[in-house]
Design goal:
single chain, 147 residues, alpha+beta, two-stranded antiparallel sheet, two-stranded parallel sheet, 40% helix, 12% strand, globular
Length: 147
């Protein structure tokens, strides 16, 4: 660009801060779809409460992924809360992606932890019960499921 005498002002890059937190709750006896929808709604509610404007939600449930495209998938007993969460999304930047179950080992460890607890729990750091799966995921170790 020096030959054309043009001053280049490259844009400043945005800083993306990865926030690692987790929560778990014992929902009692419920379906897998209900528990995964409740987890998605809870993430949206927490993001709104903490005034986070960007949320990336990964789910291993294709039904939950599709529920963001059509609320008809959401069971009637969750529909009111779901509609409230969709309203909250109007003030959030949301990215919903589907991942395979093998790539969601931390979530399964947290779910197992939640079964042992009597109330909602929030973790600002990776809980010790999940740490091994988290580290394996962070360094890129593969996870296999044999049927």
């Amino acid at each position: 660009m020096k030959h054309f005498h043009v001053k280049v002002n490259p844009p400043k890059h945005q800083l993306i801060k990865e926030v690692i937190w987790s929560s778990t709750i014992n929902l009692g006896v419920t379906s897998a779809l209900n528990s995964k929808l409740i987890a998605a709604m809870l993430a949206i509610e927490i993001a709104n409460f903490k005034n986070w404007r960007n949320l990336w939600l990964e789910t291993d449930s294709m039904l939950v992924y599709l529920a963001f495209k059509s609320s008809k998938i959401v069971p009637w007993n969750l529909r009111n809360r779901w509609d409230n969460c969709l309203f909250l999304l109007s003030s959030l930047n949301l990215c919903v992606t589907h991942i395979f179950r093998e790539d969601n080992q931390c979530a399964y460890q947290l779910a197992n932890l939640g079964l042992t607890l009597s109330s909602y729990s929030w973790f600002n750091n990776v809980p010790p019960q999940v740490n091994v799966k988290f580290v394996r995921n962070k360094i890129g170790f593969p996870n296999y499921r044999f049927c």
